[in-house]
Design brief:
By secondary structure, this protein is mainly α. The protein has six helices and three strands. It has two domains: about 30 residues; about 80 residues, Arc Repressor Mutant, subunit A (Orthogonal Bundle). The mean pLDDT is about 90.
Length: about 150
């Protein structure tokens, strides 16, 4: 195989694995008490350095209107997964923060996703796992040149 063929093959397998992972997550979400969009919002909030975000920030990240994000956050608040508070400096601004219940739910989801992912790798030998580990480590440490 040429380098070009190897690169094409690697990219194709990455695409296949990404699609398979999305299917696993989708199935887990179907069994979850919240929608995929609600899960995305909780994930973004929990990854936020400040611990909370404005409705407008969530809207920008998810490319959804403020009114849609606001309605989704109202449902999350009703389920006790987020708190919505008005900004002290500007009462028009709503800050959304995840609750401990949201952290617990997302931690549970992550455990299930990891478990499912591990089961796909358990049949590999130690040598195969090491090759994959060091390849992924090298790729993730490589700077991406946006001018290419």
């Amino acid at each position: 195989m040429t380098n070009e063929e190897l690169l094409d093959g690697i990219l194709e397998y990455c695409h296949i694995m990404s699609r398979q992972m999305k299917q696993v997550v989708h199935q887990l979400v179907l069994d979850c008490p919240i929608s995929p969009m609600q899960m995305n919002i909780l994930h973004i909030l929990l990854e936020s350095e400040s611990g909370g975000m404005k409705i407008s920030q969530l809207s920008r990240i998810l490319e959804v209107t403020n009114s849609n994000i606001s309605a989704i956050c109202q449902r999350l608040e009703k389920a006790e997964l987020v708190r919505r508070t008005r900004d002290a400096k500007d009462q028009r601004v709503v800050i959304v923060t995840p609750t401990p219940k949201a952290r617990e739910l997302m931690k549970h989801m992550e455990v299930q996703i990891r478990s499912s992912s591990r089961s796909r790798l358990q049949h590999l030998s130690r040598e195969q796992l090491e090759v994959i580990y060091f390849a992924f480590k090298t790729i993730s440490e490589t700077e991406i040149d946006s001018t290419e």
